[in-house]
Amino acid sequence: MQAQEIHAAIRTVKREIARWPDPVVGVVARQSGRDPFLVLISCLLSLRTKDKTTAEASERLFALAVTPATMQTLTIPIIERAIYPVGFYRTKAKQIQQICAQLLERYQGRVPDKIDELLTLPGVGRKTANLVVTVGYEKPGICVDIHVHRISNRWGYVKTKSPDETETALRAKLPRKYWITFNDLLVPYGQHLCQPVSPLCSQCKIAAYCDRVGVTKSR
DNA sequence: AAAACGGGGGC
DNA sequence: GCCCCAGTTTT
């Protein structure tokens, strides 16, 4: 994909994803008025976990508590039962308690809006931190998850080996006006059409610009 | 049986 | 850089 073709590609993806349901974090953000705390927790739950599983777990957990102060009072077994069976549910239950405690202790129960501060919280890496900044606070950031990494490379827009490298490359190349929403666009596209294995290239309206890097079989 | 799931942390 | 975390669904 040529640099100038990114505009048409993004426009097309934006139109196409309207056919599919929002990813969980987007739903949580919309329903809560972009509550950064709920964005943070639902993002944590989503790591290595299918969207549908994350949605059910978030619903159960948020029925019990929606603020750091109240969520901190939940016991580990209660949290584990609520979020099961998301990936690494035991680790995440502990991290949720620790996150709540640290938010109350260090930030008066508020979620930081700076990447560096978010990265000090347990279980929060670059993907989660950038998602909180972009979705929760609508501030400039590039959230690179496995979908953004895979599709950016498949298009040939960047040539990188890891999500962290992809973030660096996109910060240098992707026009700033797309930073905040790039992840929101590519995640549903990756979930429903541009999947890891046998993507639906015959239905893809940007196949003309796509280099199909790493695509061996498609449908 | 293996890959995939919107990674992160400890070493 | 390598390995671990963890259970469910899809191929």
Automatic annotation (TrEMBL):
Q: List the Gene Ontology MF annotations in alphabetical order.
A: 4 iron, 4 sulfur cluster binding; class I DNA-(apurinic or apyrimidinic site) endonuclease activity; DNA binding; metal ion binding; oxidized pyrimidine nucleobase lesion DNA N-glycosylase activity
Please give the Pfam families that the UniProt record associates with this protein.
Answer: HHH, HhH-GPD
Whether Metal-binding counts among this entry's keywords is: yes
Cofactor binding mode, per the note? Binds 1 [4Fe-4S] cluster.
State any GO BP term from the record: base-excision repair, AP site formation
Alphabetized, the UniProt keywords read: 4Fe-4S, DNA damage, DNA repair, DNA-binding, Endonuclease, Glycosidase, Hydrolase, Iron, Iron-sulfur, Lyase, Metal-binding, Nuclease
InterPro entries in the cross-refs? DNA_glycosylase, Endouclease-III_FeS-bd_BS, HhH-GPD_domain, HhH_base_excis_C, HhH_motif, Nth
Query: Which enzyme type, at the first EC level?
Result: lyase
Instruction: Tell me the domain of life.
Output: Bacteria
Residues in HhH-GPD domain copies: 45-192
Q: What is its EC number?
A: 4.2.99.18
Q: Which cofactor does it need?
A: [4Fe-4S] cluster
Catalytic activity, reaction form? 2'-deoxyribonucleotide-(2'-deoxyribose 5'-phosphate)-2'-deoxyribonucleotide-DNA = a 3'-end 2'-deoxyribonucleotide-(2,3-dehydro-2,3-deoxyribose 5'-phosphate)-DNA + a 5'-end 5'-phospho-2'-deoxyribonucleoside-DNA + H(+)
Q: Which family does it belong to?
A: Belongs to the Nth/MutY family.
Q: What role is this protein assigned?
A: DNA repair enzyme that has both DNA N-glycosylase activity and AP-lyase activity. The DNA N-glycosylase activity releases various damaged pyrimidines from DNA by cleaving the N-glycosidic bond, leaving an AP (apurinic/apyrimidinic) site. The AP-lyase activity cleaves the phosphodiester bond 3' to the AP site by a beta-elimination, leaving a 3'-terminal unsaturated sugar and a product with a terminal 5'-phosphate.
The name under which this protein is listed is Endonuclease III
Organism equals Nitrospira defluvii
